Amino acid sequence: MVLVLGLVAALASVAFPLAPVQQPEVVYAWSAGDGPAAIPLMPYQPVELAVDTSCSAVRGAGDGAVLSTVPLTPGPAAEPLQGLRLTGTGPVPGSEPARPPTGPAAGGGLRVSSAGVELGEVALPAGECALSVVSDPTRTAVLVDGEPALTRGGDVRPDVAGAFSDLPEGVALRLTADTRFQTTISPVKAALAVVAVLALLGMLVAVRAADRAVTPRVRLLPRRWWLPRPTDLVVTAVLGVWWVVGAITVDDGYIAGIVRGRGDNGFVGNVYRWLNAPEAPFSWFYDLYHGWSLISPSTAWMRLPSVLLGLLCWALLSRLVLPRLGRFAARRWVPWAAALGLLSWWVPLNVGLRPEPWVAVGALGVFLAVERAVATRKLLALAVGLVVAGATTAVTPGGLMAFVPFLVAAVPVLRVLRARVADLRPWPLLVVLVAAPASAVLLMVSDQSLAGMLEATRVRTVIGGGLEWYEEYERYSTLLEPASFQGSIGRRAAVLVTLLAAVGVLGALRRRGTGIAAGPAGRLAAGFLVMLAVMALSPTKWTQHFGDVAGYGTAVLVLGAAAWSARLVRPRVTALAGGLAAATAVCSLVLAGYNLWPFAGDWFTPTFSTLPPQVADVPLATIAAVAGGLLVAVLLARSAWRRSAPAGRDRPDPDAVGRWAPGPVPLVVLVLVGVLALQVGSFARIAAGHRDSYTLASDALATVRGEPCGLQRVLSVETDPAAGLLPTEDGAVPAPRTLPVDVGGALVPGTTVAGRMTSAWFTLDPQQRDGRLPVVVTTSGTTRPGDGLSLEFRTGDAVERRGVAIDDAEPRDHRELAPPGADAVRLVVDAPTAGPRTPAVVSLPRVPRLTPMTDLLPAGVPAVLDWPVAFLFPCVRPAALPDGTAELPQWRVGPPAADPAAGITYSPGFGGPFAAPRLLVTEQRMATYLAGAPLRDAVQVYRWTPIEQLSTPRPTVTERTVSGWHRDGHARVPGLDPVG
């Protein structure tokens, strides 16, 4: 029975990617009479394209455009795409040549270019004729009256953003969008999944029956495991507080966009880059998050699963892992050490939408399954462990480390298998070992075809962006990078202290009397180190990935505490000094870190978090290094002095000096507690002190009150900068020289930053006098050293000057709060004009006239939500990518002006899904103002205005069934994939 069910499960799983899928066939039709049209394809090229026109239409175009699939006048700031361009080469209509042409040229010609390649010119015959241009992955051809006149082999399909022509009629376009990724599961594929799951479950039941026949029953959970303990309450309380007040991770916005786009797009695609290629084979947890988001996309609700996973990880550790590690687990301090260890890992790394919490729980579950199999010789435990390892691998590439417990326990696992050969025979045993992990395939390509998954992988490889395995040192270099959230104090504490603990565990395994079970503890510590090595296979080297080993790391921390404090280790001065030296070095590196967090997590950061912890302006890292070094030196010196005494009855014991010295464990515990308190306490303080502005805590409370719109709730937008220009006193001329200044798509009066100039005094608005709103000027251009620009505030007879830095050629707002009592402001320019240059410009001072963002973008309005900010706007509907196209919304919500990270979404070289829509619009920047923090550039709102009135053709959509290996050429990445 095991053999039959296992074979069925394995074969069904293997066949699953090859099974047919349902794919929409989306056809767009357009004619010149419809006017310019928006058809921003995603991916950029169609599966096939056909243009129908006539010789008379081409002649009527003169030298104009018969057809272009990219705008004739694209958005000025957009990156170009290479479309199809059909251009007439005949005489301008209405002009008479000096001598009538004869021969084929008498009919004029048609010049054709596609995908940036000049395909040539076709001479038109005299008289009327039918012209067609067809393009597919194998060829592009021009047909005259159905006969090929120009043919180019290979893939030169054009990029398509729309359809544009200088002709009012006589041109028709028909194209089929590329929907290779927008597939859904077919009945055949669903049936295979049902068969595979039922067969797998049946196989596990049969294995359980075989186990019960030859192995004794062993209790799985300890007695009274369900009773709450004090440490349970502490862990729950701290994780609960952090859930409400703690920082988001750097990728929460990225994942929120992917998850929320799942419904409109029809699949889990990367909506910010990679041609919106599916995240398969690592995407099943996104589907879970999508279902979760349908209840509420609010920040608190979306962060809750990671907190629940943290509690599950704690339950596994406290109830199952610790008892397996040895007798020492019965000591009273062990659960508290485990609680501190878990919180030290989970708080800085694992609360958010990223996959690390899933991997941490999955890897720990596999460890328990392997240990149960080793202890009880139950094959079911191994099979379940393989299923969990496969599912964990299907979460993220880092999930591959879930197979590490099998690797480090290879010898005892092989002993279990050899012992079971007699009752199960080799073939059923082998089938179980294959069918169990193969079940992960059902999660990897649940609604994708094999060809679609392989094409997505190819696209990601072509675009790249990762590092090679031998560049893994970059992760640790980033961990030790100063003044970076990647090397924050919390991440350093978790990783570096656990590495120290792992060394202590491996060094103590050969000693007796420690109470540590050498087998499980050795496999755990070795597994932790091997997992760090496996992490090198990940193409990205962010320190966030350390969260994958949070479960293992917690257990290793507890083992390390037991190893370093073991009775047979501490009295030895050399061991004690070595441990103290190592702990001093590690703790000093930890204390040199900053309490920094990404994006909204660093808002309102207390002063003490903008630099490493200090005491009386002396870095705590320095104090720890000096104090620890002195203690180690004293220990070694006194021990050496005692060893130098003459041999005899009264010779002092050199190791006795270690009895009064503290071991490394108290120092490490003190640092971990302090770091944890710093992280949680700083955010609790921020939440309590800034309830009138945006924090995750205020967001959670607002959601409970029925205001679920996140950051949008406390943002206002400056829609018209000119409306807030400040008046001059007594109607004076504002400045000796004024000119229009671009403030982000709108023009307001300003002046050049050249020469010496002092403007008139501008009267402050009442809201500026009481500090509710700042004085704002907008600058653009570049300056030279020595150029100066200042704002001067007048308070009675006193004048206070504040410098304004100009460091960006793009328009940049500068905000200053007026000093208390100030009533007027003026501009002062001191910039010598020697040497040729284009001077920078500055707008005249203004007060922002604001509109609540919830009024400007009501709930449900679509907008492109850039990935750094997408998590914080749950009421804005992310612009969709349906039916092989990208939506053309009216709005874009972007990160602060100084953050260029969102540019990938609009860059063809990164496969940006909204590169084509960006070509079709001009972008007007609108500054936002955050309640309670008017100086902060929280986000930018952009109005997208089409460059001309555009129609939107409605597609014809039909469903078709395609095989798992079906593909229509490659989805080409402009500039990276070869053309032709």
TrEMBL record:
Q: Where is the signal peptide?
A: 1-19
Q: Which residues form the Arabinofuranosyltransferase central domain?
A: 186-634
* InterPro entries reported for this sequence: Arabino_trans_C (IPR032731), Arabino_trans_central (IPR007680), Arabino_trans_N (IPR040920), EmbABC_dom1 (IPR027451)
- Per UniProt, which keywords does this protein have? Cell membrane, Cell wall biogenesis/degradation, Glycosyltransferase, Membrane, Signal, Transferase, Transmembrane, Transmembrane helix
Whether Membrane counts among this entry's keywords is yes
Indicate how the chain sits in the lipid bilayer: Multi-pass membrane protein
Query: Where in this chain does the record put each Arabinosyltransferas concanavalin like domain?
Result: 37-180
Q: Which residues form the Arabinosyltransferase C-terminal domain?
A: 744-971
Pfam families per record: Arabino_trans_C, Arabino_trans_N, Arabinose_trans
Q: Give the location in the cell.
A: Cell membrane
TM spans (from-to): 190-210, 231-250, 300-321, 379-395, 401-417, 429-446, 489-509, 521-537, 549-569, 576-600, 620-641, 667-688
The organism's superkingdom is given as: Bacteria
Family (UniProt): Belongs to the emb family.
Q: What is this protein called?
A: Arabinosyltransferase domain-containing protein
- Organism of derivation: Pseudonocardia humida
